[in-house]
Design a protein that fits this description.
Structural class: alpha/beta
Helix content: 25-40%
Strand content: 25-35%
CATH architecture: Alpha-Beta Complex
Number of helices: 6
Number of strands: 11
CATH superfamily: Spore Coat Polysaccharide Biosynthesis Protein SpsA, Chain A
CATH class: Alpha Beta
Mean pLDDT: 93
Low-confidence stretches: none
Length: about 220
């Protein structure tokens, strides 16, 4: 299995975000170390940035030199993963599964990645997306009218809700996908999709300095 960690040098929200010190380590190193702890993963960092490449290699990752045309502000993640698949195929042989890990989600419990891979194989799905549970108290606006996407007349306590009553928010932390899904649909998700339910503490995505504070507190709680 190929694990791909995309790490572009540019970042509008937080400059040089992937190298930002988070709880004593460059942000990207958290995800590299978590992936390297899983046996059988070929862990690759895709970057166009020499400084990120140096940090990733020092942490033990295989570095894929990303072309600059795949490192623009509007570049989607899927072409980056597909470039990594081609590179891996040419060097080591075609991977049959790809694990996409986002460096901006550094909070993962020990064993989380291994559990996701085990669920992917056990359930026989084509793609698996990491999610955290959230109550279904979702509203939207239709013109001036408030629209509830739940039965507001029969509000249940969150702790009493069954799994099928909850909704699940995509964390962006991890995705597991059969390689042929990328090749056929150019999407990280496709075919039969499964949900990998993560702990709520793992739902941190770093977009702002406030998120860094939240992530550091979560990592401290997990002993990181």
């Amino acid at each position: 299995m190929l694990a791909v960690i995309p790490a572009r040098g540019g970042s509008k929200g937080i400059p040089r975000k992937n190298l930002l010190s988070v709880a004593g380590k460059p942000l990207i190193v958290w995800t590299i170390e978590q992936a390297l702890a899983v046996p059988g993963l070929r862990v690759a960092v895709s970057t166009e940035d020499p400084e990120i490449a140096t940090a990733a290699a020092a942490a033990g990752a295989w570095v894929i030199a990303r072309p600059t045309d795949l490192a623009q502000d509007d570049t989607a993640t899927e072409p980056v993963v597909e470039h990594a698949i081609v590179d891996c195929t040419e060097r080591f042989g075609r991977p049959d599964r790809v694990l996409l890990l986002q460096a901006t989600s550094p909070v993962r419990r020990p064993g989380t990645i291994g559990r996701a891979l085990a669920q992917f194989d056990r359930d026989g799905v084509d793609s698996l997306v990491g999610v955290v549970p959230t109550p279904p108290f979702i509203w939207s606006l239709d013109g001036d009218e408030a629209v509830a996407h739940w039965d507001w007349q029969r509000r249940a306590r969150r702790q009493d809700m069954r799994a099928d009553q909850l909704r699940y928010r995509e964390t962006g932390s991890l995705y597991v996908t059969r390689t042929d899904i990328y090749e056929r649909t150019h999407n990280r998700m496709g075919g039969r999709i499964g949900l990998f339910v993560m702990d709520e503490i793992e739902g941190v995505d770093i977009d702002s300095i406030h998120d860094v504070t939240v992530a550091e507190a979560a990592l401290a709680r997990l002993g990181g």
